[in-house]
Amino acid sequence: MTRIGRFAPSPTGPLHAGSLVAALASWLDVRAQGPDSRWLVRIEDADTERCLPGMGELILSQLAACALVPDEAPVWQTQRTHRYELALGKLKAAGLAYPCGCSRKDIDEALTRLGIGHTRHGERVYPGTCRDGLHGKAARAWRFAATTFQQASGEPPVHWHDRRLGDQQQDVAREVGDFVLKRADGPWAYQLAVVVDDAEQGVTDVVRGEDLADNTARQILLQRALGLPTPRYLHTPLVLGPDGDKLSKQNGATPLQTGTAGEALAALDAAAQRLGLRAISGHSAKEALAQWVAQWRDLYNSRP
């Protein structure tokens, strides 16, 4: 079987140390699975409000400087909106998507009335306010009827296996609620776009940062609802910022320096060590990558 992996950055800024860890891990994972396997790059620019002009091209040049070159031309989500419309239409026809008129304030107030709070960075569990109609409000988004779908399946918790983290489960209806697929003002939600793209590109192995592990159950529900295959998952360790949160441009992440071969190799070496691979010095990026493939195979490819 040909294994297909991908790296799918959002062009909100240049690559930094944390995003290179995910890129390197996804590349190594594919290369360790045989010469016929393929590595793809998808620029996830569906949320046009957050994306910056020229950042997609910059990210591709940074990857190339690190010898991380995709096997096919990169895909841009903004060129694929018709695919997401088709998927949303299928969910609507099945009674699994409905319009929602709730603002964030509306949801917070509803949760307060129910005596439910949320922690910093925690989910606002959607209380189902618009599940039976808009009640005179204008539609602000389309939501996936996760509660309805899980009840119909007869198995509320979604069980899945992560090749690094082990067995996982989440009751999406209880812990997340009916989640957004598309905002009324245009941008597509990550959950729907990534599911549609992974299936169409034939992705068999999703390797990404551990902060996205919590999204996996939602994506598996959508895969089932749309009749799409579920890939294998592996979530990598995070690089943390000075505040202890995931490294990002909001908490001090600096752009990768890849202008010289030495800078690119140093960036790759730091990413490899975060993944538990041994440091390699005195080699080009291509030579280092070839040696890390063997290490990756020993670490991860024996895991289901």
Keywords:
304 residues; alpha/beta; Glutamyl-Q tRNA(Asp) synthetase; 3-stranded parallel beta sheet; elongated
Overview of this structure, please?
Keywords: Aminoacyl-tRNA synthetase, ATP-binding, Ligase, Metal-binding, Nucleotide-binding, Protein biosynthesis, Zinc. InterPro entries: Glu-Q_tRNA(Asp)_Synthase, Glu/Gln-tRNA-synth, Glu/Gln-tRNA-synth_Ib_cat-dom, GluQ/Sye, Rossmann-like_a/b/a_fold. L-glutamate binds at residues 6-10, 44, 190, 208. A motif ('KMSKS' region) lies at residues 246-250. The protein is α/β, with parallel strands linked by helices. It is 37% helix and 14% strand. Strand 6 (158-162) and strand 7 form a beta hairpin. It starts with a strand and ends with a helix.
What is the structure about, briefly put?
The chain is of the alpha/beta class and about 300 residues long. Helix content is about 35%, strand content about 15%.
Largest sheet: 3 strands, parallel
Query: H/E element string?
Result: EHEHEHEHEHEEHEHEHEHH
Would you identify the regions where 5 or more consecutive residues have pLDDT less than 50?
none
What class would the helix/strand composition place it in? alpha/beta
Assign an overall shape: elongated
Distance N terminus to C terminus? Answer: 15 Å
Strand elements, count = 10
Mean pLDDT over the residues? 90
Task: Tell me the β content.
Answer: 5-15%
Give me the Rg, rounded: 20 Å
What is the share of helical residues?
A: 25-40%
Strand order of the largest sheet: 1-2-3
Q: Give the helix tally.
A: 10
Domain Glutamyl/glutaminyl-tRNA synthetase class Ib catalytic: 6-260
Motif ('KMSKS' region): 246-250
InterPro entries: Glu-Q_tRNA(Asp)_Synthase, Glu/Gln-tRNA-synth, Glu/Gln-tRNA-synth_Ib_cat-dom, GluQ/Sye, Rossmann-like_a/b/a_fold
Keywords: Aminoacyl-tRNA synthetase, ATP-binding, Ligase, Metal-binding, Nucleotide-binding, Protein biosynthesis, Zinc
